[in-house]
Specification:
The protein is an all-alpha fold and 228 residues long. It is built from eleven helices and no strands.
Length: 228
């Protein structure tokens, strides 16, 4: 019987066999109804990580980076959902994929300085290097609005959907604070100080950033559906 790409890679990188044993154990623990989706998502994440396009000397286009961000984030969230015993309706699958896309985009925005240091291409590093903070904000707001729209298509009680969205809004608020910081830095200095960690990184241990997040959460005019 031929080995799958995941099994081949596992044997090559971990001769001890531990990685393969964990893979087989995980596959066994996934409910049968969700096993096919789980394996599809796991393979997509595996291919993204091993192809290394984000580390390539030939920097991906914005469209390719958008596809990578969506697949990596969306499939990662779906992998966790597949561990639950309930079957996965198409509306929920789409909503969780979009949510994962948003989470990955937020993570890339937070990690702008670090990804620059490691030469990792992301939507944030590419657009920030072009000095286009406005487009980065636009991309983020479009993703946030998309998540709100697809979550409200899930066939569950409205109260549950809105609770989920209000919980996720914390991530949206933190990301908006981060993007606002980048915008102000660019306006003040004329360009983003991409290699200045102290200036660029939004450190949530600092109270000024914590208060900005609180203000964003308390501002009722700020929501998933529009720019603050």
């Amino acid at each position: 019987v031929g080995l799958t790409p995941l099994e081949t890679y596992g044997r090559f990188t971990d001769p001890s066999g531990l990685a393969l044993r964990l893979l087989y154990r995980t596959n066994t623990d996934v409910p049968f109804a969700n096993r096919h989706i789980f394996q599809q998502c796991l393979l997509r994440v595996f291919r993204i990580e091993t192809q290394g396009r984000q580390k390539s000397a030939d920097i991906p286009t914005v469209d390719e980076i958008a596809r990578i961000t969506a697949s990596k984030g969306g499939c990662s969230v779906l992998l966790f959902r597949c561990l639950l015993p309930e079957t996965l309706p198409e509306t929920e699958r789409l909503a969780l994929f979009e949510f994962g896309h948003l989470v990955q985009l937020c993570d890339d925005i937070f990690d702008l300085w670090h990804d620059r240091q490691t030469s990792t291409a992301s939507m944030a590093t590419v657009l920030a290097s072009q000095g286009d903070c406005a487009q980065l904000e636009q991309v983020f707001e479009q993703r946030a609005a998309r998540v709100a729209a697809v979550f409200r298509e899930i066939q569950t009680p409205a109260s549950q959907r809105e609770t989920a969205l209000h919980t996720a809004f914390f991530l949206v608020a933190v990301t908006r604070v981060c993007l606002h910081h980048y915008r102000c830095l660019q306006k003040k200095r004329g360009t983003l100080p991409l290699d200045d960690r102290r200036a660029l990184v939004v450190d949530m241990a600092r109270w000024k950033f914590r208060w900005r997040v609180v203000a964003a959460l308390l501002n009722h005019r700020t929501s998933f559906n529009g720019t603050p």
